[in-house]
Structures are given as structure tokens and as C-alpha cells.
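During the reporting period the student researcher (J.K.) took over the structure-prediction task from the postdoctoral fellow and processed the backlog of single-chain submissions. One of the processed entries is reproduced below for the supervisory committee.
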Amino acid sequence: MDVKGKLFTKFLERQKEYSQQQGQAAIEKQHAKGKMTARERIELLFDPDTFEEVDAFSVPAPAGGDFGKKVTAFGDGVITGFGKISGRLAFAFSQDFNVLGGSLGSVHAGKIAKVQDMALKVGAPLIGLIDSGGARIQEGVASLAGYASIFNRNVKSSGVIPQISVVMGPAAGGAVYSPSITDFVFMTNKTSYMFVTGPNVVKEVLNEDVSFDDLGGAIVHMKKSGVAHFVYEDEENTIRGVQKLLSYLPSNNLENPPFFEYCDTDLRVDERMRDIIPDDPNKPYDIKEIINLLIDRNSFFEVSAGYAQNLVVGFGRLRGKAIGIIANQPKVLAGTLDISSSVKGARFIRFCDAFNIPILTLEDVPGFLPGVDQEHNGIIRHGAKLLYAYADATVPKITVILRKSYGGAYCVMNSKNLGGDVNFAWPTAEIAVMGPEGAVSILYRKELLESKDPAKLKKELTARYREEIANPYVADDKGYIDEVIDPAVTRKKLITAFEALESKHISVPSRKHGNIPL
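J.K. obtained the following C-alpha cells:
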């Protein structure tokens, strides 16, 4: 055999060794846990035959001192590379729990950092499929330095390319901070968890017994902490969710979101919209019913659906064009704003603004949630985050006041003077410093105290206040809203207004960055 033949034979042997380094037992071990292998996840995420692997033959760095056994597995516990997702370029890494528990050492970190750099350089999304035992203890500080290099690149890429973390197994200790500074976090119920300190440490330090799921499982992070934006019951649907999310997002901050053809010649004038708001201003309704009637059919993709449910946020399409939606939910806490919903809304607005996604606000808010806990835990500071995010955003911003719009919450929810481009109101809108009942109690306190029938007098004064002060026509006359509209033509009005705002441009003062009230 000539030299060229020997070299090619060596190449083929190396390829074969790589493809066979994990036996069937290792694959079945993952499947027994209800999990896919790292390779299967990559194959499902990317379009068939488009994924190109990078650094497939990297091997782990030697362990420090005498700690840890020598491991020569190719890939060092992570698959990295790029390919097409629905025909669009994307980069990804997929941690392999079958190699040293997917733990992160210096070589492993270097592979991730390389695809991070490549994604940023070409302007393409980065998806991290996380299934890792955390820092590789036997490599010591080199492992910690590897995490820091990944975090640094996460921050540098923030607002430039979409970054999505998909937690499909453990993520503990320092490993949780990369997902937390990416744009969106997906988790799989019952097979993934995230925490800074695990159950054993909690037991040792606080003498509290807690399970992995109760401490940092997917449901905990969806409903309580807000860390997880999306939770699915199995890995296949989790990855399908990632693909769906990407369909709303541009590849980078210099592009516009993808456009989908949508046949809607009549603009869907919908008389059902006139009957959704109850006659009783204190009666709740489901804001999602309005959202789904306004946007393209079946296009609403809710974000953080289980967290701070008094504010609904998510993506939708209007005539095929992606928009971000922020809406008060009267079904939960009467739609009031609290700490959690303020932070949830602010983060979503900041993302939309970074990636050229216009923002629609549907408003029905009686104010900020009162209470000692809210005040002591910083509702002033956290509410200011929502205010700041709206005022700082330069994408097209449209507000529709559906019903209540009281006090500081009116200002915060993209009011005209905060920077709203087009502000509509329905005839059912109530815009005032406070609700009619509260206003009357203050303005007519003496009269109510002296009245022989205070209940009747208050009812009459409340109706008069609602008619003369809180009605939307007062705000319309003064230019604080642009038009009071028929609810049935809201979709038509929104499409026309967003089209008019497509060429919006704002010159902002030169600065390094603003100081959002973190």
C-alpha cells in the first residue's frame, strides 16, 4: 500500500473509532432515564444532513496530580458545530453525559467557546443543549476558567445574536449562569434541573431535606423562580419548541424577523371583539381570547406561561410579520402589576428591542399590587425596570387601552409620553389617576360622611366620575391617545399602524449604556 493509501486507511480507522466509542449500553442508559443521547438531540434539532461537527476528535486534558483516571474519549463530552434549522444557519453544542458526566474541563470549554465565537462572527443563533455534572473537579481551576470564558462570550453576544439554553439534564453550580444570561431557557419536565447548591449542600448547611425536583426542577423554575421560559414533557417536544421559537427571531440584531406569507384580504374585521369586555368593570375576562382574535390564526407563542401570570408575554404574527405582545391578564390578580410581572415584562421588552421585533401592548391595569411584601421587596425598583424598558425601546411600539388604565401603571404601560408611537383606546377604556371608587372616596369624603345614604351617593358620584373624568374621550381630546377605535377593527388598525412605523428611526444620545434600575 502506498503512503497515500496508508494515510487514508488511518483516517477511516479514526472515523470508525469515533463512531463506535460509545456502546449500545451507554445509549440505553440515557434512554432508560427518558433522555436522548447528545447525538440524537443534535440530529433532531438540525435539518437532516446539514450538521457539520467541529473539533470532534478533541480529547480531555490530563487530570491535575493523581486525581481522576485518564480518559481518552474523543470529543471530551460535548458535540459542537453548525448546520441549518428550517433552512437557516445556526450553531450549537450538545453536552454528552456519557463522557465524564458531561462535565466541563478546559478542552470541553474551549470547544464551546469556539462555536460561540463562530456564531457571533457570522451572526447566527447559538443553541446550548445542556446535560452536565458541572465543573470537572479533577481539572481544578482550569475548569472554572473555562466556565468564565463561556460566560464572557455569552455577555459579548447578548443583544447581537439569539442565545438559547436547553437544559435536558443536570445544570448545577456555576453551570447555571450561562443559561441565566442567555435569552431563553427551555427545560424538560422530570429529567432536568438547575440549582446553585444541590440538595446535599442544603441538607448539610440548613438541615433541610429537599429533592432534586423540588429544589430546582423544571416546574419550580417555570412557576416560582421564572428561570425557565418554556417547559415541555419530553425532549422531542422541547426541541420542537426551540425550532418554533427560532421561527419568530431574526438571526442577529442587524436583520428583521422572518416573514411568513399570510392570506388575509379582509383584515378580519371581527364583531366578536365588541362583546369580550364585561359590562361590569370589575369582572375578569381572559386576555388571551383577545390576543388570539387579533393576531394571525394559531400564531401566538407564549413565553413564561407559568410565571407571573398577571402579565402575558409572547410572540405572534400580524399578516405574517412577527411582533412581541405584552398584555395585562385580568383573570390573575385583576391584572395588577407586581414585582414578578414587572421583571418578566421588562426582560421580554428588552429582548424584542434588541432584535427589531415591534411591540404591541394590550392594557387593562388597575395599578400596582399594594401590600407590605411588595413595598419591602422593592416594587418601586422592579416596577421601574418595566418603565425603563419601555422608554428605552426604539422599535415600533403600539398600545391599545382595553379597559382600566390607572395611575402610575398608565404611565408605565407604554403611554404616549413614555414613547408610545401609536396609542389607541376602546370605548370601554377608563383612564385616570385612580379608579372611580377610590377617587370619589377622596374627593367627596366630607359629603359622603354627612350623607344620609352614603352608598347611593357614592354610586352616583362614581358613575359621574367614570363618565366625565375617566372616559377615553378626555384623553383623546388632549392628544394622550391617538384615537378611540371600534374594537371590531382593532386588527386592521394595528396592521396599518405597524406598516406605517416600519421605517421608524430614532437618534439616541451618545453614551456607553444607560443604568437600568437592576
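The committee noted the following: The chain has 20 helices and 17 strands.
J.K. will present the remaining backlog at the next meeting.
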